[in-house]
Design brief:
Blueprint lengths: L2 E8 L4 E6 L2 H10 L4 H5 L2 E10 L2 H12 L3 H8 L3 H10 L6
Antiparallel strand pairs: 1-2, 1-3
Helix pairs in contact: 4-5
């Protein structure tokens, strides 16, 4: 069963990263305040980024990876700014020091 990594833009401007096997259902849960405390307190405005994976485990792995990123790097991903993503990735590479 395929799964999705998704990023929501919240009303505060923050980004929320999640994974699901049913993106439409999960979006409705976030909108209604049933999904989690974060989006109940800071409702989502839009789904701003998605990736599809062959399994939920793969989507969760990508979710965990992105949650470790800086806000700047997540914003670059959402903007699909590959130059900024590459530059931000290199800035944390110990080989570049």
């Amino acid at each position: 069963m395929s799964a999705h990594l998704y990023i929501l833009r919240l009303q505060s401007g923050q980004l929320y990263v999640g994974a699901t096997t049913d993106l439409d259902r999960r979006w409705r849960e976030h909108q209604s305040g049933e999904a989690c405390r974060t989006t109940r307190l800071d409702p989502p405005r839009a789904i701003v980024y998605t990736e599809e994976f062959p399994s939920f485990a793969d989507a969760r792995g990508r979710e965990a990876q992105i949650k470790r990123w800086s806000r700047a790097k997540r914003e670059a991903l959402v903007a699909r700014d590959l130059d900024a993503l590459q530059r931000l990735a290199q800035s944390h590479d110990p080989r570049s020091e």
